[in-house]
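Feature request disguised as a bug report, sorry. It would help if multi-protein outputs had a clear separator. Right now it looks like this:
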Amino acid sequence: MHSSPTLIPITMLAAALACRPAPSAGLSDADRTALRAAADTFAQRVRRADWPAAAKLYAETAALMPPAQHAVTGQANIEAWMKAFPPISAFDLRVVSVDGQGDVAYVTGKYIMTIAPPGAKPMADTGKYLVVHHRQPDGSWPIVADIFNSDLAPPKH
């Protein structure tokens, strides 16, 4: 019996596809809800200047990447950075997107805040952020990487 030349490639393709690992599961609605709630919790803690509680939302080895500064690594260093930040009189976050695969999720959004730099009048700032979360075995989603930057032009000297 003579086999058709098209049957061999099709059966090889079918076998190869059957051996591929299943794609990672996307985020569930519960995951998305938890991640949005984490953003709300962070905003509440910032408004209260509760820096220890805000820093607890980060993993022990997390990296915070503020604008025009070196990255801050580790939960304790992130807390110290937050404590040294100029006083904040208004702060709000607006989540734009929540996405991810498996145990990794990212949240993008916009922020608005009013800060009082030492020796200066309070100033309003708006900008954007990207936060990466990694799900832990207990189901929590600590922040593992956080970067934000202003939409405003740098001050002229």
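(second protein starts here, but nothing in the output says so)
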Amino acid sequence: MRFNLFGLLVLGCALGGCVSSGNESIADATNATVSGQLLKGKTTQTDVRRIYGDPIKTSFSSNGFETWEYEFTRLQSKPTNFIPYVNLVHSGAEGDKKTLVIFFDKQKIVQDYTMSTSRIDMSRGIITR
């Protein structure tokens, strides 16, 4: 019985695991790779669109500067999701979210950018932590 439960847990983790959403062009991006692709004062919006595709969000400041945002989220199911009855008490997903924000001047040239990664922990059930 013990082996069967462990086998089901391993099989469930292997089969049910990952979900991703957002712009896959930044899925494996790091500060180093981004800094090699975006040159402040040189890279144009056309270059950025060619490298990363369309942004998920754009905004404009009162001084006419434009901001583009890119996001990518990768989540993996928690192992408890696949254990009957235990999943009623505690289940969910965890993973990482990457965000790339690029700031352009009025001439549509990159002036600055920021790349960040944050941890996500989505829990549900009676015990959420």
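Even a blank line would do. Unrelated, but nice: Residues 1-15 have pLDDT under 50 and may be disordered.
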